[in-house]
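User: I'm writing a tutorial on reading structure tokens. Could you give me a worked example: one chain, its sequence, then its tokens, then a sentence or two explaining what the tokens reveal?
Assistant: Sure. Here is the example chain.
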Amino acid sequence: MAFTVQTAEDPTAVIEFSDNDRFTIRASGVLEVESRNYGTRIYAPGFWQLVNCGNHSELLRKVES
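And here are its predicted structure tokens:
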């Protein structure tokens, strides 16, 4: 598991993504995840609550300002 996403839908559950998946947090607050297992997922600001990076490569994550 490289990183997890927690959403407002079920704050006690997390969605696990693999080492090769990538994510971007857009300046607008939108979270975009590109995953081999789940495809591209777009999370609206306020819907996604937390991204836990763990051992995820810095090359596969980006935060825009």
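What the tokens reveal: The chain is about 0% helix and 45% strand. The two ends are 26 Å apart (CA to CA).
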